[in-house]
Specification:
With 426 residues, the chain is α/β, with parallel strands linked by helices. It folds into two domains: 134 residues, Enolase-like, N-terminal domain (Enolase-like, domain 1, 2-Layer Sandwich), CATH 3.30.390.10; 276 residues, Alpha-Beta Barrel (TIM Barrel), CATH 3.20.20. Helices cover 45% and strands 18% of the residues. α5 crosses α6. The longest helix has 23 residues. One of its GO terms (molecular function) is magnesium ion binding. It is found in: Cytoplasm; Secreted; Cell surface.
Length: 426
Amino acid sequence: MKIKDIQLKIILDSRGNPTLEAEFFPETPTDADLTRTNAENSQSSSVLSRSSSVVSSVPAGKSKGSYEAAVLEPELAMEKFGQIKKSILEKDFKDQKEFDYFLISLDGTPTKKNLGGNLILVLSMCFARLFARHNNLELHDYLRSLLSTFNFQLSTQSFPHPIFNVINGGAHAKSSLDFQEFQIIPQSEDFAIGLSLGEEFYKKLQRILEDKFGKDKVLLGDEAGFSCPFSSNEEALEVMYELIEKNKYPLRIGLDTAATQFFKENKYQVGGSGYSSEQIFDYYKSIINRYNIISLEDPFSEDSFDDFAHLEKEMGGAVLVITDDLTVTNKERLKKSIETKSGNTILIKLTQIGTVSETLEVAALAYENNWKTIVSHRSGETLDDFIADLAVGIGAWGIKAGAPAKPERMAKYNRLLEIWQSQLKV
């Protein structure tokens, strides 16, 4: 498949920060493109050009692991793109891997610091969309087919659990909460029911928090979760747990502590006190049992493989011990985590590694070693819904896309609902 043209521009993400958006135009439109265009305007070649193109944009995280792919300022990325655009347009790419590794070779660095992981990723995502359309495939079906190129084939079709970040803390909100995400996770296998539960819980939680703190004290964090003057992490958990119990909701609580953010001077600074690794371990155990917590993400700092392994061994698989900053969607980091048994679930973020192919390779490695995957957005998001198709395509256990509010978060959930409903009709 040859690409006729690529347009790159700077847009604003959900935090108002500049990020990249790419548009790919195919050399030859598909039959589906022609049919759609003829229906719209049989006379206009410009309409054909627009309807045949695909668009992708990249988000950005505020809470980042040290081992993530490098990110360039969008203005510099635009300059870099100008230097490589001709090379891309001259080639006829046979598949996703060839395209992605061509960009990696152009960059020539282990961390993608030359071209930037954000520039490489937005091009990789756009190519995936264009190649899927070129082959008349839904994006999630195309991504699933790519798993086989890494010698792995999903044996079952599963649908991701939505993971709603309903209370924001840490780097994602102006509050005293140490932990970054307080989540609810529907236990229903029906995605539509799960989404409905999340929306209902979110609205009831808002009313409870407004009664508790006053409307002017209930703000929204980066991921559309509520930001309030809680006195402690436990107070936030208590409010959530009581609401679940009172309404007998089939919901479990998940936490992303993002411990790297509050690990200072070899102590975990929580609630104004400094905890050793063993003390924070005991603290986690107590709140897991008290609030029936199903998942714990980044409970220790980003190099604490042994502490992750200790928690995984102690909890015996009863809790999803999720690695994010520890593994950063990186094959070598995941290999070490597997060898040391430092977790059982990996968070998948396209932006951490920088290409679709490398992301899928990490997912395949996780599955080969009986780990689960959870696909995640970033705190600074766009309206791009690529991760919804990615979560379905790789059969992820769950997807994090923030609270069920704000357009950039709902874009992902609505796309998942669309896929879910289409699968019910088959």
